Amino acid sequence: MPNSLSATGLTTATQAELLANYTAALQRIYGSDINLSSDTPDGQLINLFIQSVLDVQDLLTQIYNSFDPDNAIGNVLDQRVAINGIQRQAGTYTITNVTLITSQSINLYGLDQSIETVYTVSDSAGNEWNLINTELGLPAGTHVLSFQSATPGSNVSIPNTIIVPVTIVLGVTSINNPTSYTTLGINEESDAELRLRRLKSVSLSSQGYLQGLLAALENINGVTSAFVYENLSSDIDSNGVPGHSIWAIVSGTPAVPPGLAWSATTTYSYGQIASSGGVNYISWKNNNLNNAVTDPTYWGVFNPVAQAIYAKRNAGCGMKGSQSYVITQIDGTPFTVYWDVIQSIEIYIKFTATSLDGVHAPNLALILQQLPIIYVPGVNAEVNINQLSTLVQSIDSNTLVTNSGFCLTLGGSYTNTLSPTQKNYQFVVSAAKTIITAMILSAPNATPTIVNGVVTQMNLLTTSGGTNIQFTGLGGYGTLVYSVLSGAGSINSSTGLYTSATSGTDTVQVTDSLGNTAIAVILVA
Fold first, then answer.
1. Spatial separation of the C-alpha atoms in residues 248 and 133, rounded to whole Å
2. How far is the CA of 352 from the CAs of 91, 145, 367, 372, 415, in angstroms?
3. What gap in Å lies between CA 240 and CA 411, rounded to an integer?
4. Is the pTM of this model over 0.90?
5. Half-sphere exposure (Cβ direction) of 345: Cα atoms closer than 13 Å
6. pLDDT tens, 65-75?
7. Which residues, 6+ apart, have CB-to-CB distance to 166 below 8 Å?
């Protein structure tokens, strides 16, 4: 089939069709007895030509497909979704405290200036962190300074890992982060998430339609989730929503970049953004009556959530919420908008992590670190074991989740699904309340014994006479206590630092607050 671009789409020739065309053309020139087998020079040359054509066709196909927002990627996707009046939500930076010990007075330059090199440190994995505020004449001593991740996103700073100086400054003798991050950044919206939000954005142009308001709220940079409830009756319902009223609930921290020019098609805006004293303002009259956006006479404090609700609500529609904001309307009269922010509800998750290959232990440390980051239910959203299993496998493909459940209390009954009891609740997953019942007593260079996918013990070798091994209990809940079940060695009950003694076999154990245990067997030579 020849290459064509028609009403049915783009069609390109296949490898077999190209080979047939090239073969027929050469046979017309050199005769039908020409040898075009793949092991001949002529045959190899034809296949080189065909491959080059296929490469060009593949590129053209990708370009053609990129015009569809459902197939576009990266910057091209950003251009496509702009047609629908939305933009990719940017990532934010993680902030963490780093302790520096200095031996003399020094100058450290931060991100608040652009002349000197920004003082930068790195963790053991190579992730860099930049000093936020410049410190001039920093005296000798111990200083706790705020650093920002060099790249946006949820960069988790693991304690005691930021120890590498990238910018060398004479007088800095020690670098460390004894605590984790103070503010966790947000990952930039992925292509998949942006495509999904674009599908909802077709409701943005509607007026007085619930999905239109929801799309407008979710289109606000910094809003991670939103929910809109409508009471169509004439009476107050069981949720406390007055009759013929809406209840808008948002999660996240709305942010508007100063200086952003808003077009007339942006439904919740009336002009341009100006910034003064760290506060964002908007020219609240249409086109600002042709006055400069910097003229404070025509400023109003900008709240994107309130603007979205104001622009999308039906005339005469009531609102519920503890958050309020007064919008100055085009005619100069005030209008109060009401909404609510989410109430975070931490839930308990309990499951058994089993090994799929029966050889390697589940990576519980990585699961406990990453699960709270990627498992973020929406406002008024249910949690279920299918979501949990899928996300755990995305973290560690060798881990199968079994015997799982959710509960609001530690000693309650765990269920396969759990729904919020209030419309403005949002479940929060945390490592502290994620209970992995099949615990693992981890140590460097240990190998697992796995029965039916469950790690029954860890095994390792060491030498006698005071050799140390650092054990870490993974999974379980609450305070972990380490002990020696048998053997001559000893272990610190709170830190898990084991010390060998005489030759033999030592067995150590970790026990959590619920009575879950894990053991490790040490052959001491």
1. 38
2. 33, 40, 12, 17, 14
3. 31
4. no
5. 24
6. 888 888 888 88
7. 120, 121, 122, 128
